[in-house]
Write a structure and sequence with these properties.
Blueprint: E1 4-10, H1 14-25, E2 30-34, H2 47-52, H3 54-73, H4 88-112, E3 116-119, E4 121-128, E5 131-137, E6 142-152, E7 156-158, E8 171-172, H5 174-177, E9 186-190, H6 194-205, E10 209-213, H7 225-238, E11 241-243, E12 247-248, E13 252-254, E14 257-263, E15 269-274, E16 276-279, E17 283-285, E18 318-320, H8 331-345, E19 359-361, E20 366-371, H9 374-380, E21 384-390, H10 395-399, E22 406-412, E23 418-425, H11 428-440, H12 445-450, H13 460-468
Helix pairs in contact: 1-8, 3-4, 3-6
The protein binds flavin-adenine dinucleotide and 1,4-dihydronicotinamide adenine dinucleotide.
Flavin-adenine dinucleotide (FAD) binds at residues 10-16, 33-36, 47-49, 53-54, 57, 121-123, 153-156, 174, 195, 286, 290, 322-323, 329-332, 334, 362.
């Protein structure tokens, strides 16, 4: 049955479902279109993030870290354990349980906020009298609903390489790599980016020999160089074999496994034979069959929907948020855009400072940063001062067997404003929140240094790094 809504959101990933909730909180009549199906054929909310992204990957990272600690590090605490074994099926089932709990949680939130879930594929089929028409095609039927405001939150999918079909059994993207039934002896990863490092770490910890083939000549190009350099040391020491500057040839299969021929950085022809291959070479926005042309919109040459700083498209009342628009492909970035757009529709004046969006890579130790890198500041010609402090000089870190890494604070040379914070630490994902708050409030390094931090805690290293910008770290 056709209905009129104030707001229809297309896509219930973190950008879309949060936007729907905020719009409902603001008093709008809201519907959200979602078509995601689990492998067992059940419709599910939550998008990439909850089903095959952030949440399941972090669950497997946590399980594999527990295994690695039990098998290799507990003895350093004086605890001897023997016969540590991995039950991959149980590990994956635990992860699936968390995913299901979280996606069902969004169904509850939709009911609580009186948001209608329109089940199926949504697409624009025109507009009339100030209302956009959205056709929703389910398994058996389709219907057309209308809304004054439409928020496109259709997210992204894995980019695949030409000539290398992904079957998600042997050659996998993130979806297949989260459901291996056993630990592959030899695992190849094409692309040493965020997914490659996180999922490569999961299976390395569980016993795979992992080789990563990366096209770029540099490692973690988006990170501060000091961080990338230190992480290279740590990850290669952990056993990740990372080959940089490679060019992949035609992949083939034989009884011995999957053969990946490649030319290495020195120009030598080499070949890698593995049992499973993960392809993690970036993601592309979802704009297929969205009917954008019916309302005079089109994706740009890279497939993204063009928006302004407030996620407005060229059509009044049509917004786009999350992975389908410019900016980092991060769940929290999409969530913040979702809140911003709902508030804009309500006539408020929200704003996002994209420079204050934190990044985290959930390796061990974790990598996190917010703001500018040292190389960006140099390129911008900005005068800055840097302060760095190691976790090796922090008592809590030593006690936790977490002494790897450092915090680096970059501050304006004249005003002392914090311009960037870069962390390698076991708990970097939590520590970076302090830096994000500081930068949102335009804090100075001195502001961070004057705040009383709990002792003993990993957060003391943030304060010491802030003090170090003025060469007055206390414990160094
Ligand atoms: P998505 O989550 O992709 O959701 C879009 C939804 O729209 C999907 O459910 C899709 O079915 C639906 N949809 C698309 N088209 C239509 C249509 N026409 N009709 C109906 N429904 C439609 N980010 C982080 O911040 N932290 C992390 O730790 C992290 N880990 C990740 C790990 C992995 C393995 C991957 C792959 C990604 C990870 N990300 C992480 C990125 C994060 O998942 C994305 O940035 C985030 O999911 C984007 O949210 P979104 O709502 O824009 O899109
Ligand atoms: P990515 O952009 O992080 O890394 C892709 C890597 O593949 C790059 O280093 C690139 O140079 C390399 N590459 C591209 N083509 C190649 C080729 N032909 N051969 C070899 N290497 C090649 O993308 P990734 O890892 O697929 O993740 C996609 C996005 O998902 C991330 O950019 C991030 O936005 C999001 N994500 C976020 C996470 C987090 O926040 N912790 C975790 C996982 C994903």
């Amino acid at each position: 049955m056709s209905e009129r809504y104030d707001v229809i959101v297309i896509g219930a990933g973190p950008a879309g479902y949060i936007s729907a909730i905020r719009a409902a909180q603001l008093g709008f009549k809201v519907a959200c279109v979602e078509k995601w199906k689990t492998p067992s054929g059940e419709l599910a909310l939550g998008g990439t993030c909850l089903n095959v992204g952030c949440i399941p990957s972090k669950a497997l990272l946590a399980s594999s870290e527990e295994y690695e600690n039990a098998a290799h590090h507990l003895h350093e605490h004086g605890i001897e354990v023997q016969g540590v074994k991995v039950d991959v099926a149980k590990m994956v089932a635990r992860k699936d349980g968390i995913v299901s709990k979280m996606t069902k949680g969004i169904e509850f939130l939709f009911r609580k906020n009186k948001i209608t879930w329109l089940k199926g594929h949504g697409r624009f089929v025109g507009a009339a009298d100030g209302f956009y028409k959205i056709e929703v095609s389910g398994d058996d039927a389709s219907e057309i609903n209308e809304a004054r405001n439409v928020i496109i939150a259709t997210g992204s999918k894995s980019r695949h390489l030409p000539g290398l079909p992904v079957d998600n059994v042997d050659v996998c993207d993130n979806e297949g790599a989260l459901v291996f039934t056993e630990v592959p002896k030899r695992l190849g990863v094409i692309g040493a980016g965020v997914i490659g490092l996180e999922l490569g770490s999961v299976w390395r910890r569980l016993g795979s020999a992992v080789t990563m083939l990366e096209a770029m000549p540099g490692f973690l190009a988006a990170c501060d160089e000091a961080v990338a350099k230190e992480c290279w040391k740590i990850f290669t020491k952990q056993g990740l074999d990372i080959q940089l500057g490679v060019k992949i040839g035609e992949v083939s299969r034989s009884a011995d496994g999957i053969t990946v021929p490649y030319v290495d950085a020195s120009g030598e022809q080499r070949s890698l034979v593995v049992d499973k291959l993960i392809v993690s070479v970036g993601r592309v926005p979802n704009t297929d069959k969205l009917g954008l042309e019916s309302i005079g919109l089109a994706p740009n040459e890279r497939g993204f929907i063009e928006v302004d700083d407030h996620c407005r498209t060229a059509q009044p009342g049509v917004f786009a948020i999350g992975d389908v628009v410019r900016g980092p492909m991060l769940a929290h970035k999409g969530e913040d855009e979702g809140v911003m757009v709902a508030e804009l529709i309500a006539g408020q004046q929200p704003h996002i400072d994209y420079n204050c969006i934190p990044w985290v890579i959930y390796t061990s130790p974790e990598i996190a940063w917010v703001g500018r890198t040292e190389q960006q500041l140099k390129a911008e010609g900005r005068e800055y001062k840097a302060g760095q402090f190691p976790f090796a000089a922090n008592g809590r870190a030593l006690g936790m067997l977490a002494a790897e890494g450092f915090v680096k604070v970059l501050a304006d040379a004249r005003t002392d404003e914090v311009l960037g914070v870069h962390i390698i630490a076991a708990t970097a994902s939590d520590l970076i929140a302090e830096a994000a708050v500081a930068m949102e409030f335009k804090a100075s390094a001195e502001d961070i240094a004057r705040v009383c931090h709990p002792h003993p805690s990993m957060s003391e290293v943030m304060r010491e790094a802030a003090l170090a910008t003025d060469r007055r770290a206390l414990n160094m």
